[in-house]
Amino acid sequence: MKLVTINTHSLIEENYSQKLEYFVDFISRETPDLITMQEVNQSTCSPIYKAPLPGFSPISDKLSPIRDDNHALQAALRLFAKGICYYWTWLPVKLGYGKYDEGMAIFSKEPITDIDHFYISVFEDYHYWKTRQVLGIKTTNLEDWFYTVHMGWWDDIEDPFKNQWKRFLDHLQETSPSSKIWLLGDFNSPAEVRNEGYDLIEASGFFDTYKLACKKDEGVTVKGVIDGWRDKLNNTDAFSGMRIDHIWCNQKTAVRTSNVIFNGTKEPVISDHFGIMIETED
Q: Candidates 3.90.79.10, 3.40.50.2300, 3.40.50.300, 3.60.10.10; correct CATH number of 2-280?
């Protein structure tokens, strides 16, 4: 099984159209089984998309409608035009930068049979930038749950990481206590920092697939100063790189490889985060 995750930054990126094409080209070549994305945006002023949505699984008609420039939609349409059909869903979470519906998406090669989404932040205000949800799916071929994750920061005064993580675990324990669970995404938790978010996840019984991988690279997913970290790092820390994007599993799993992608070495850079692709023995 091949899994990919990336914080896309999507419409905020300079040269967005070219970066979208890089992403679609990579997915069409590698055809991962599942792709999770964070910061999947659409312009609030863009027209509502009227044509059929190939492979789309709606969550609720009460949420923001899919608009023409929705990043997940545009990726799905381009893949579909290449003869590659993914089943996908998108969850709008909050208003970003005052002009984007910012959300999360999951693409799956297998049909989506169940969708789960819930707040992990104490905030549920769509207009507040610290509002956070989690989006998960199950598919026809597996009993596993796959969640795309975008966590807050360990030291956030209003809503610290450990509180969000407790809400996350409480929900999983209530809804799927015996399931195999995969968490993929931007955890805002550097693997190099002790006694904070990374260690808390590991202590909760989750396995870092980077550590499990037989073959791996350096694992760095962020280099340079990015939004959310400008007041937390000195220049040395920022430019040396952090491993803050992860793929976790609550069961020990045979992982063949773990590679950083879209980092300028393995595929062009398309976001302020690099992506991750793992391949398991399953």
A: 3.60.10.10
